[in-house]
Amino acid sequence: MECRVSWLGNGGMAFSAETGSGHLVNMDGPPEAGGQNSAPRPMELILAGTGGCSAFDVVLILQRAKQAISACDVKLTAERAEVEPKVFTKINLHFTVTGKDLERAKVERAVKLSHEKYCSATSMLAKTAEITYSIDIVSE
Fold this sequence. Notes:
GMP Synthetase, Chain A, domain 3, alpha+beta, 6 strands, OsmC/Ohr_fam, 3-stranded mixed beta sheet
């Protein structure tokens, strides 16, 4: 896996990342750090990637379990250390899974499997952060 990050210059703190799969993602810092708030912060992208990684697992596991899932949303809430490096210290992933006749046990199993076995992002972040999750199921 590769990624190339380039500073966009112009006296700011904006960067562009080109992923190994050829996609571009911009990042920027807050004005108080010299940025212009023109794009997500790098740490926000880590959090977003974590949600995407886990949601991917949950959807795939539920599809394979023949569950009629129509939506999966994850709200991530995180706390960071007070001092540098300001690593994540707590992260909660709140899953809202929507579908027809979803079996609670299968949804809980999917989230647990992602959390404990499959999600590379939560596995890495668990080295510094207490990671928890919660689940809401919405019936159609």
